[in-house]
């Protein structure tokens, strides 16, 4: 199953709008999940669970920590020194995570052209 | 702790029997008079403005109520309280008062206590993966929306109280005492018509290893 970046974004946007009960137009690539879209922990866990069904990406259920560690690579500014992230740094990752970062993560995992 | 702190009009006050020092207020955005955001500092007002329109009111109300409740127990001015909430970490106490807030749909909840505290409220909402969520939160229990949201509020209240937040692995949290992060906690569900509400607070004299 292959998706390009636009298809991934369109698909994520529809799912997130439905789940967050907001208008899809309010979701942009640059939207921060927490500070712009007001996603809470349950929203993020549901997002993780959805990645498997929507894109075939496997992340251990309930392990937000694992996903944040992987997503940290996609932030524009590096967090930590590359030798593993502390809980405080992972919390910072969650705060700085944008929809575009999730799109990039999915694109890499499904082998899409970016 | 003694003292009576009546909530503002339209806001419900809760004092869980198991946690007499914890004060919880909960509200629905359409049941309270339009909240005055004048008590919010520019940073909190700007954060509310950034939220999607449907979430803005609940976000602002939760932050207003947190200031009003802290001001009530501290006998201080809600507009001048200095509240520090590092991303993803437990907010720093104000004076000796720890605090927590939550909002979901039209519902908001805030809690204060003289020790670490976490509160979570969830409005009824469809869950996309009830079976997988149920396997994490309640492997042997029902996986209907109400049961799962009730179980989720207990987990998230505990995760906030320990300071781990979303980095804590998801697991069942019983109504009774639970050990987490080296301490013993009580995590009662609170009856709140129309929503699911839970609060978590430590039992200070029962540290892990004491018996």
- CA-based gyration radius of chain A: 13 Å
* Helix and strand composition category of chain A: mainly alpha
Count of individual beta strands of chain B: 9
Helix content of chain B: 25-40%
The share of residues in extended strands of chain B comes to 15-25%
Please give the number of β-strands of chain A: 0
Global outline of chain A: globular
Distance between the termini of chain B: 25 Å
Content-based structural category of chain B: alpha+beta
Q: Could you list the spans of chain B in which at least 5 consecutive residues all have pLDDT below 50?
A: 206-211
Output the helix-strand order of chain B. EEHHEEEHHEEEE
Low-confidence stretches of chain A: none
Give the biggest beta sheet of chain A: none
Number of helices of chain B: 4
Of all chain pairs, the largest interface belongs to: A-B, 33 and 34 residues
Main sheet: strands, sense, barrel of chain B: 5 strands, antiparallel
Written overview of the protein:
The complex is a heterodimer of chains A (114) and B (211). By secondary structure, chain A is mainly alpha-helical. Chain A is 54% helix and 0% strand. The longest helix of chain A is centred in the N-terminal third of the chain and has 16 residues, at 5-20. Helices cover 27% and strands 22% of the residues of chain B. In chain B, the strands form two sheets. In chain B, strands 5, 6, 7, 8 and 9 form a five-stranded antiparallel beta sheet that branches. Chain B has a four-stranded antiparallel beta sheet with strand order 1-2-4-3, covered by helices on one side. In chain B, a hairpin with a 5-residue loop joins strand 8 (189-190) and strand 9 (196-202). The longest helix of chain B has 22 residues, at 53-74. Residues 206-211 of chain B have low confidence and may be disordered. Chain A binds chain B through residues 19-23, 26, 34-38, 40-42, 44-46, 49-50, 53, 61-65, 68, 87-88, 90-92, 94-95, and chain B through 47, 50-55, 59, 86-89, 102, 104-105, 122, 125, 127-129, 132-133, 135-136, 152, 156, 159, 164-167, 169-171.
């Amino acid at each position: 199953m292959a998706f390009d970046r636009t298809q991934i974004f369109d698909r994520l946007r529809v799912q997130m709008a439905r789940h967050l009960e907001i208008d899809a137009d309010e979701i942009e690539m640059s939207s921060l999940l927490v500070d712009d879209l007001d996603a809470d922990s349950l929203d993020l866990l549901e997002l993780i669970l959805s990645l498997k069904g929507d894109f075939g990406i496997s992340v251990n259920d309930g392990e937000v920590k694992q996903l944040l560690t992987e997503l940290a690579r996609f932030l524009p500014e590096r967090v930590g020194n590359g030798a593993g992230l502390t809980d405080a740094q992972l919390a910072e990752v969650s705060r700085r995570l944008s929809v575009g970062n999730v799109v990039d993560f999915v694109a890499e995992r499904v082998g899409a052209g970016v | 702790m003694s003292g009576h702190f009546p909530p503002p009009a339209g806001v419900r006050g809760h004092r869980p029997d198991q946690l007499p020092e914890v004060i919880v207020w909960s509200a629905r955005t359409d049941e309270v008079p339009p909240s005055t955001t004048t008590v919010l500092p520019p940073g909190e007002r700007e954060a509310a403005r950034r939220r999607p329109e449907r979430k803005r009111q609940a976000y602002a109300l939760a932050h207003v109520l947190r200031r009003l409740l802290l001001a009530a127990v501290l006998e201080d001015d809600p507009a001048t309280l200095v509240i520090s909430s590092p991303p993803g970490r437990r907010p720093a106490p104000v004076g000796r008062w720890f605090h927590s807030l939550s909002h979901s749909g039209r519902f908001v909840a805030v809690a204060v206590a003289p020790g670490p505290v976490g509160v979570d409220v969830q409005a009824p909402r469809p869950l996309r993966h009830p079976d997988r969520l149920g396997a994490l939160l309640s492997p042997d229990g029902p996986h209907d929306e109400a049961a799962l949201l009730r179980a989720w509020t207990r987990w998230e209240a505990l995760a906030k109280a320990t300071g781990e937040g979303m980095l804590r692995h998801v697991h069942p949290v019983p109504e009774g005492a639970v050990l987490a992060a080296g301490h013993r906690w009580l995590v009662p569900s609170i009856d709140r018509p129309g929503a699911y509400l839970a609060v978590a607070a430590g039992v200070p004299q029962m540290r892990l290893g004491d018996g």
